[in-house]
Amino acid sequence: MKKINVIIVGVAALLAAPLFHAAEAKKSPRNETQIKRGEHLVKAGLCADCHTPKKLGPNGPEEDHSLMLSGHPAGSALPPPPKLASGPWQIITDGGLTAWSGPWGVTFARNLTPDKETGLGDWTEQNFVDTIRTGKKMGKGRALLPPMPVEGINNYTTDELKAIFAYLRSLPPIKNAVPEPIPPTPAASQ
Fold first, then answer.
1. Domain that holds residue 100
2. Which residue of 87, 175, 181, 190 sits 20 to 30 Å from the alpha carbon of 66, by its own alpha carbon?
3. What is the domain count for the chain?
4. Is the dihedral of CA 8, 13, 16, 18 positive or negative?
């Protein structure tokens, strides 16, 4: 009986070891340092300005921290944007600064949380780096649309992008299916 207990304990230890090491890797000082660096870069890069819904506070719109980096609220139905003016006034945004309309159509800020269904949960670090480097989803898909500042963010170093991704992966996942972009209507693109 003692031999069976030892075998069971040994098998349990072998099965638990990968889980223990994965948990320890998440808590490692290097990973914590990388996450902190990524948090700094996300804040300095003003990512939340577009990717975090706003609520009205005493001083006007402010970030809704309960929805940090979850993108345009899925349940926020918007009417069609007003007709674009000619001249210098050609971009319109919603009050939450998560939906934008311009000559390219209408874009919605993406959910950057690690939710597997609606965010970046199934993305790899390489998918993220490729997206930023190329300005295309997963490095080969649809182009990232305005107001995403591709020309600026693709200047991050690979280590900085990995730190940003580590920070995004450390956030609580928020289920929020952001609408797909709406292409411009023929009249709007003229």
1. 53-190
2. 181
3. 1
4. negative
